[in-house]
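hey so u asked for the seq, here:
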Amino acid sequence: MVTKTELARDWLPRYTGMPLEKFGDYVLLTNFRTYINQFAEKFDCLVHGENRPMQAATNDTGLTIINFGIGSPNAATVMDLLTAYQPKAVLFLGKCGGLKRSSEIGHFILPIGAVRGEGTSNDYLPPEVPALPSFKLHKFVSQMLVDRGLEYRSGVVYTTNRRVWEHDEQFREQLRSYTPIAIDMETATVFVVGHKNQIARGALLLVSDLPMTPEGVKTSESDAQVTHDWSQAHLSIGIESLTLLEEKGERIKHFQY
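ran it, structure tokens below
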């Protein structure tokens, strides 16, 4: 019978175009091609998978970045494919909509948990299991933010499969009742599937819009401005966090079950 590991070892290179031996122990996940390009330019490394569903690159120190696409099903897929070699830590760099009045575009959010509103994670663990990051990984990310003097918030985010919901007042009221700090489409899935696969995982989200106010709804123009103003800082924090974690050689322990 074919095993999950055998599938992942075959499919990870197939999806990304990058040979298995080139993947590093520390992985940045993103759904923005600009982040891959910036990473490759910074480290002068090759981008694999130009014509594949995902793109990937690895620098000389063994740090890998993967553009897995958008949405929770893709997030689950990449977290499953990474079981091909079980990386030591995975950090998701995504954007989110700020839901609190104190949120501002350009703020960073370090989620302490995520509401599983996307449904995808239910295929991995029962709804009663919380979607949580690995604490030690978030400790390193938090330190990077503090060292840079950057504004950030901690809190629970709501993850949904819905992309066009800003017009739906019933959904907006439901969001308010859950009291999340932000909304996105991948974080809960990364946390739950990472937990299921015993992969250390975390997320650093960039507030790209304020969807609870008409003037704050994301547009192509506003999103391009956020990318221009904040993407390099976002990526740099991710790179420095995982690099520091590797340099210190700290092991993120797992409870087996």
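The beta strands are 26-30, 55-58, 63-67, 89-98, 108-117, 152-160, 182-184, 201-209. DSSP finds seven helices and eight strands in the chain.
lmk if thats what u needed
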